[in-house]
Amino acid sequence: MNGPTDLLLTGARARTGVSGRPPVEALDVAVRDGRITAVGSPEGMRGLAGPGTEVIEVRGGLLLPGFPDAHVHPP
Q: What is the pTM of this model?
């Protein structure tokens, strides 16, 4: 990744979707240009933030994978 990330979500729990596996604690997620570019421990991720990075403290909130769906069923 070149340059700082656009968004850094810190202190989250993330559901991996793997059966029988607990959520991951204290996880940081870096996003650049609308895509996840890195996932890791807070210690390893803070260096990805720059002066223009939006940092959101999730405070133990749960991150779930998104499945955007933009289709419509007209009547």
A: 0.72
